[in-house]
Amino acid sequence: MIEKRFHVAEKGSDIRTELLAGLTTFMTMAYILMVNPGMFAELPGVSYDAVYIATAFSAAVGTFLTGLLANLPLAQASAMGSNAFFVYTVCLGFGLSYANALLLVLLDGIAFIILTVTGLRKKIFEAIPASVRLAIPAGVGLFIAFIGLQNAGIVVADPETFVNLTSFNLLFGSASWSDVMPILVTLAVLIAIAVMTCRGVRGAVLWGILGGTLLYYLLGFTVPGFYTGFGSGLNLNPFAAFREFGTAAFGRVFTEGFDFSHYLADHNPAELALLICTTSLAFCLVDMFDSIGTLYGACARGSLLTREGEVPHMNQAMLADAVATAFGAVCGTSTVSSYVESSAGIAEGGKTGLAAMATGGLFLLAMFFSPVASLVPSCATSAALIYVGILMMDCTKKIDWQNTEEAVPAFLTLAIMPMTYNISYGIAFGVISHVLIQVFSGKRKSLNGGNWIIAGLFTAMFLVTH
Q1: By three-state DSSP, how is residue 256 classified?
Q2: Those residues with Cβ within 8 angstroms of residue 443's Cβ, 6 or more apart along the chain or in another chain
Q3: Can you say how many angstroms the Cα of residue 207 is from the centroid of all Cα atoms in its chain?
Q4: Strands 336-338 and 76-78
Q5: b/e per residue, 247-259, with b = 16+ CB within 10 A?
Q6: What is the pLDDT of residues 133-177, one digit of tens each?
């Protein structure tokens, strides 16, 4: 039955290799189980445990779909970047509720399904300038790293320069050990992850987080009052998280997602309509480019591309991604997408969807370990955010920085995102600047209808919402 479904032997692999590849992939991306709920817990009324279950459940379903529909050894989970956009821009920035933002993710998933089934995905992809497409992951990476630096307390607010480096001055009393200790843990974890990666250790990010957690609690003995009241609110019952998931996350997009009364108290319906359109578009674009880039990158590293250089079963893989995003919104988490960390499993010999099934099974098992995950401090997960941000900068080497037509839109895309705390603003500046440069440099004919439509939508967003 396994051979009939996954063609393991036909592709030159065996069951043991596929299962080992699935385990390797899980180890390299399991950090999302702690990072994602940690982000969402910053929103009012959002439960860490509920989002933990939502993250694990949607990752399992998305990964199973990839294995079954596309027969590829790739795994899915809540996408880094989209989760930051969800929390820090859409909710804390624009003022939408958690449920409202879930509705936008659901619209993204539905739109992605339609675009994939109808074949319009390719036209949308081509409507975004190549330089902007290349810069989007880098801009998201800078955004994620900036959030990690802030969460760790390394970068702090400054009334004159807006941001500054925190004080490490323990000698003359301007900084206290209780403040500096978590920051040192973050830096230690970041260096440890880098060293383990250089040495080829699988799951370096996860091991770094776990080691940083242990170091944090050991150093806690050096901080007066650190353990006062520790564990008083800790619930070691793993099924408590499932109750939280059922009451505070699952289906909330339907029960509360359509209620925009809080936002409309300070904005008019036109602003809301445009915000929904542009934000859903931003979610969809980031999801699409992230998925396509990951699919090509991971498959290329494992020599899984077809003779034509295409991803095998590309449409099925994209459909699995789109369905997983819609399912994730129903569960209570942000955009679900393919993970480049799947390359680790492919490097271990994974060639078929059986590896994905193994990874998905481990995500289901991980649902019962939420009490342990809740003990992970933010100083440990912040290091993971910074490191993931570093990895996402790789695409910038493909940008022709000597060509002004490419350099300006690309730079604006990747710079605006972290500086404005908004992914959609970065995409908007990149697309609009590309259109303007082409028009005024006499190359208007190079623009297509999609360029004009997307640039027009983002221009209207700035004119109406600001």
Answers
A1: coil
A2: none
A3: 20
A4: antiparallel
A5: ebbbebbeeebee
A6: 888 888 888 988 898 899 899 999 888 899 999 999 998 878 899
Residue type at 17 in one-letter notation: T
Question: In this structure, what are the phi and psi dihedrals at residue 155, rounded to the nearest 5 degrees?
Answer: -100, 125
- Would you say how long the chain is, in residues? 466
pLDDT in tens, 286-322: 787 778 777 876 777 667 878 777 778 888 999 999 9
Cβ atoms of residues 84 and 147 within 8 Å: yes
| Low-confidence spans in the chain with pLDDT less than 70 | 233, 297, 301-302, 464-466
Nearest alpha carbon to residue 32 among 434, 354, 342, 433: 342
Q: Output the six-digit token pair for 379.
A: 């100083």
Sign of the dihedral through C-alpha 141, 144, 149, 152: negative
The pTM score is 0.82
